[in-house]
Amino acid sequence: MRSHLLKLKEYFYNDRFVILLFAFLGFVLYVNTFPNRMFWDDYDFILNNRFIKDWSFFPKFFSESIVAGSGLLSDYWRPALLFVFSLEWRLFGDWAPGWHLVNASFHVADAILLFFILSKILKKRWMPLFAALIFLAHPLQTEAVTYVNSLGDSLSVFFIFLGILFFLKYKFSGRPQFSSGYYWFSLGAYVFALMSKETAVIMPALIFLIDFLFLNPVLDLKEKFKSALKSIWPFIVIAGVYILLRATVLNFRNSFNLYDEENFFTSNFYFRLFTFFRILTVYFGLLFWPLNLHMERSVEVATFLFSPSVIFGAVIFFGLLAMAFAKFRRSPILSFGIFWFFIGLFPTSNVFVPINGLLYEHWLYLPLIGIFLVLVWLGTSFAEKYPGLAPKTAGLGIFTVFLVFLSVLTVDRNGNWRDPITFYEQTLKYAPDSYRVINNLGMAYADKGERENAEITYKKAIILDPSNAVAYHNLGNTYRETGKKDAAMENWQIAVKLDPKFVFSYRAMADTYLKDKDYQKAREVLEKYVEYDASKVETLVLLAQIALEEKNLTAALKYLERARELEPNNQFFQASADDIKSLLERQSQN
User: Fold this and answer.
1) What is the rounded CA–CA span in Å between residue 351 and residue 276?
2) DSSP code at position 305
3) What is the average pLDDT score of the chain?
4) Which of 190, 278, 479, 537 could form an SS bridge with 484, CB 3.0 to 4.6 Å?
């Protein structure tokens, strides 16, 4: 037995073997995602996003929200993610297995980087290995890995980890701060992390935590604090510039209140804090017993402190923080894990910045590392206290069983994402009153040609929320497909009445009128549509073409001149306008 353990130890002290282990396990865990289809937000972020399909839109990556290329508006500014999506589109088109391969690869890369980071700061091997394997295999990660457009999670963490690794190389090199190439690479990685996902803003806090707890062991507390602060002040400057940009030129709707409205939750700090405590109890349950995973989780907003779940969450929060502050001298790994968890959770906590959701499983992608690092540390510390092989063998056995348990759940959860109907029906078991899941299920039925099921499902969505334009629009589309043109038009008109900026229904009505060669009504609809259209030029050209069909040269010239104002260097618009002017002159002469 001892010889086998020594041989195993020899393998695990080989970096190449560890990298191959992570790659192999990651492939085994996520290979069953490769046949999965792309759906839900994959349409807005990827499949319908013209920005990623044409490099001429590259400058817009940095000035528009990530879904602007789909004609939508969001609070998300993620140019690095758009760039990766663009590369993937050129490699794979809409071939889903390629996209799933990229997601799985970034997740594996994150686990490998995490292993090397923890190895460098803890000066240990087994503890980082166990923690990184749990990070790789935990089923909570599937929401960030299996769901294609969630690449922002693993991509931003990839740059965060790369930045931390570069920072460690700078610190261990002993070179001055701004004379070290590794330090500049770390700053650059932070910029790319911010351009991948907003939650990366916490990277300086993680670096400060590492520097303070592990990199200056001989200094006193005051000197440690000053040294760590000196190391991260340029990161803080970058974070400040980023926040300023998000507050001004990159504030597409409301960067600091993703609800985009004031309500009892967004306007009351204490309600958000109490709700965070309640959510903590859910998160801890998911960390240790990750069964029945699903999207569309919800909790009731807590408006009262003296509720059992709120009190329990507050005990978890303050108890862990008290332990972290009390033990950071004698047990820095314990403090590190606890602080890492709360720092990672901070951007999605809703406490300071209300965001458009209360909890999601993928919000634990980075934070869960902290809790499991603490548990692995406790387990290895316990085994090391007792001599002989029995405690170590027992500990390794327990860890192996837990890892297999997590792996089986991950593979099983991946199957829930197989196709939209499977996914939405599974989600509705846990969230039967979710408007958007029911509406999306209707769209999945429609895509599959099950129009009767689609109609029934859209009507359920309308009953749930009769003030939402989306289901009316989709119901209209289903009526159009079944030849009920009047019913389709009625539902599209309701949609634009509820939401005058709902461009999709304008376009559907215009297309229907054009097919019937009812050019006057098509122009009336498009005149309203063009005010809200993200690509006004294309709509103006279409209006010009309609006007020419009507032989209305004056109107056609007006539309072309408006298009030329938006694109003054477009020679086609200039030539077409000149041709129409010539025709008008001839008509006036005759």
Assistant:
1) 7
2) S
3) 92
4) 479
